[in-house]
Amino acid sequence: MQRLSGCRLFSLSVCIAALWLGHVQAQDMFGDALSTSNSQLWKSFQEEMKTLEQAAHRVNNLLVNAHPPNTEADQEAKPADQPDVTVLASPDVLRNGLHVKPDLPKPQETKVEKPDPESPGGLDAPFNHPHDNLASFLNSFGLFKSFPKPWWKGKNVCVEKSETVEEKQQGEKEVNKHLIIMGTGTFEHCKQTAGKYICKTVTSTPQSTKTVSVTYQCCEGSRRQGNECVQVELKDPVEVLDSLGSKEFASLVKSQDVLRSLTDHNITIFAPLDEAMGSLNMDFQESNQIRGSRRLRAVDEWNDIRPDSGNSGLSGRDMVMAHIADSLLEVDDFANEMVLNSSYKNSPLRVNIYPGREEAVLTVNCARLLSLDNLASHARVHTVDRVLEPVTRSVVDVLSQPQFSQFRQYLEQEGLLETLANATAVTVFAPNNDAWDKLGDGLRDKYTRGEACIDKVMRHHILPLTLCAAPVSEGRLTTADMNGELVRLWREEGGQLMVDDKGRVVQEDIVTTNGVVHVLDKVLTPKSAKPLSELLLSSNHTTWLSLLDRAGLMEELNRQENITVLVPTERVLTEENTRALLDAMDADTLRRVLLYHVTQQAGACELRDRASLRTQAGPSLTVTLTNPFAMFAGVEPRAAVQCAPLGYTDGKACHVTAHEVTRLLLPPNSTVLQLIADNPQLAFFKRVLEGTQIEKDLELKSELLADGFTVLAPTDDSFNRLDEDVLSRLLTDKKFADEVVRTHLLKGPVCCSSISSIPWPFTNS
């Protein structure tokens, strides 16, 4: 939003400059010839400039008066209904796997400077406001006299500079030296957030890449208000905690005398509200330790895994330190999958940012951040809705619990246990042993043998990102598993978290060092792991399903891998003529017709024009695509098989892809010449063909016709419109007849369904 608004402001300024330059050029051209009416025009122009100036100020105020999203004003303006939320992994993770680490480089050198407030411009920096030159130009003509100086060039602004140098590998050097002019390239990018102005300069040479980052922000003890940094009174962190509804945590902080040891540096505190602290039954009178017994609450039930985490004997001081990060961080500093080190044994604090229906949902170790960016002396305080336990175990450690023994067995069988061990950000929906016991023995045996798409089943339980339960409270949420298939989450009216087809999450948000685990009471089965019979049943292709059963093919196809099935529509199969044709077929004929609809695996995006698909019945199918430019004529490009257009495509079952076809496909049992000979309406055309060279080419399947062809066969009625002498010549002059017939021959297969009234130049030749 900030960058978008900045672009609009810049465009507005460019527009003003263009108008002004046009007026100056007009003055130069006409000089003294400007009349009184021109003076009035100039006056009107100045008034319009003032209007544009006011608009520019309003846009600028939108930039400088940004605020956290949890204000009452924002809440009043929220829409009632929004579409479902979609959360996907970053492209880098999808491209490179679960081991990709967030790009959070640590600067080699950091220097903070507090500028002299009396110096011209407030800051002596190498970076200028993008509108400074334009504003100066306009001010020379009396326009924009009050164009505001950017806040980051004013008083109480500190500058932080950092520099990193990365040496390039030999392979990078060989590539980059050909791309950078004169061996060096420099790129600069600046962006503004609610509290910072950041400029990065990247200098790349064949040997290394140097990144210099300069960050402008209000100095400690001041806060941005409008277009300036204003000094504010910073209270003690304990006072701030009290005022935010975190009195119990504040009392614990004070009693443990934690802050005294942290006065030498800035910190960030994630403070549980009193409601969250009330869930702990703590007794410090004897041992000053947090007892293992806890009272359950709806927000975060302590399950049978957490007591084994090794944290049951935490001291009160340790518990407080687990909520503190050793750096000063505001919302602008947070990034999705950012991992901070807490002051308790560097226990990780993982920050996640999710899109919400109305505003972003921020979490730390799956606890939702509530009140943000609260200032305190040498600290920033963010409140959270639960107590943060120190995180010491990985995803694999959690799955080592006895209740996950069957799930772990299949993970190891499919080679996914090592994948999880190396992952840096992952979510696992872990079915417990009770969930696996609900499956039939036959299906579990197939899974043990590596059948029934167990690989897709297991990968469906893993997300290549950290997904906490908090964003699901915003409504339905959709994400993607390791297969790229959709996973849908929602909450029932009672608050129960559900996944896919009625999978209940019985334990939420088991936070680990490399992700999160949710415990399920049901094994999830993606569509791509279900048998073909279930796909046909769920898609209402029941007639085709019954035909496969009648031919004894259903179980056979369910066992096959990497096949594509073309399924005629229910409407076609229930037509009287089609039904009569199928009913009259014997078992062998029906089997051959059905297998003519089964080919090697080919998704819709893999289909190519004039491609040949070998069927299990023997003969091949020919794919045709409509003109790729059909969309310009308002026609959606479509694919056809044997000239039968495809309807719905890419239905997924276990090792099967299904496409709907709008006609029953029958294996060919004759040649083109036989078809012409058997059609009484083409009797004269047959006589014309006899004795021609093209007839021989068709009989011998000449190389000229190897890529396929289409015959435009004139009927007898068409020939009857010709003169007698032309008809006679067609029958007697075979060279002439051959030339005429060849004009009715098209290269490649051309289907009637692919022909549309598309104007030139979007035509097939």
UniProtKB/TrEMBL annotation:
<feature type="domain" description="FAS1">
    <location>
        <begin position="391"/>
        <end position="524"/>
    </location>
</feature>
<feature type="domain" description="FAS1">
    <location>
        <begin position="237"/>
        <end position="388"/>
    </location>
</feature>
<dbReference type="GO" id="GO:0005615">
    <property type="term" value="C:extracellular space"/>
</dbReference>
<dbReference type="InterPro" id="IPR000782">
    <property type="entry name" value="FAS1_domain"/>
</dbReference>
<dbReference type="InterPro" id="IPR050904">
    <property type="entry name" value="Adhesion/Biosynth-related"/>
</dbReference>
<feature type="compositionally biased region" description="Basic and acidic residues">
    <location>
        <begin position="100"/>
        <end position="117"/>
    </location>
</feature>
<protein>
    <recommendedName>
        <fullName>FAS1 domain-containing protein</fullName>
    </recommendedName>
</protein>
<dbReference type="Pfam" id="PF02469">
    <property type="entry name" value="Fasciclin"/>
</dbReference>
<dbReference type="GO" id="GO:0007155">
    <property type="term" value="P:cell adhesion"/>
</dbReference>
<feature type="region of interest" description="Disordered">
    <location>
        <begin position="96"/>
        <end position="128"/>
    </location>
</feature>
<keyword id="KW-0732">Signal</keyword>
<dbReference type="GO" id="GO:0031012">
    <property type="term" value="C:extracellular matrix"/>
</dbReference>
<dbReference type="GO" id="GO:0050839">
    <property type="term" value="F:cell adhesion molecule binding"/>
</dbReference>
<feature type="domain" description="FAS1">
    <location>
        <begin position="669"/>
        <end position="765"/>
    </location>
</feature>
<feature type="domain" description="FAS1">
    <location>
        <begin position="528"/>
        <end position="665"/>
    </location>
</feature>
<dbReference type="InterPro" id="IPR036378">
    <property type="entry name" value="FAS1_dom_sf"/>
</dbReference>
<feature type="signal peptide">
    <location>
        <begin position="1"/>
        <end position="26"/>
    </location>
</feature>
<dbReference type="GO" id="GO:0030198">
    <property type="term" value="P:extracellular matrix organization"/>
</dbReference>
